[in-house]
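User: Second chain of the day. Same drill as before.
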Amino acid sequence: MTVTLATGIPRETVEAISLDYLDPADVDLETFRNDPDTLVVPNAGELLHRTESQRGRLPA
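Assistant: Same format as last time:
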C-alpha cells in the first residue's frame, strides 16, 4: 500500500515519515476517482483531525 498526502505540509516533512507527497495544485480528483486502484477519501483531514463538534468550523 502506498499512502500519498496532497497537502500544504512541506514535502520534506511528509517524506521524512515515509509517505509520498503530491502537490495539491496537481490533483485531478476525477482522474483519481475513475482509477479502480485508488481510494479517494473526501474531506479526509476533516474527519481525521477534528472532533465531531469541530467539523465544519475553522480553528479559532
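The chain has three helices and two strands.

User: Great, on to the next one.
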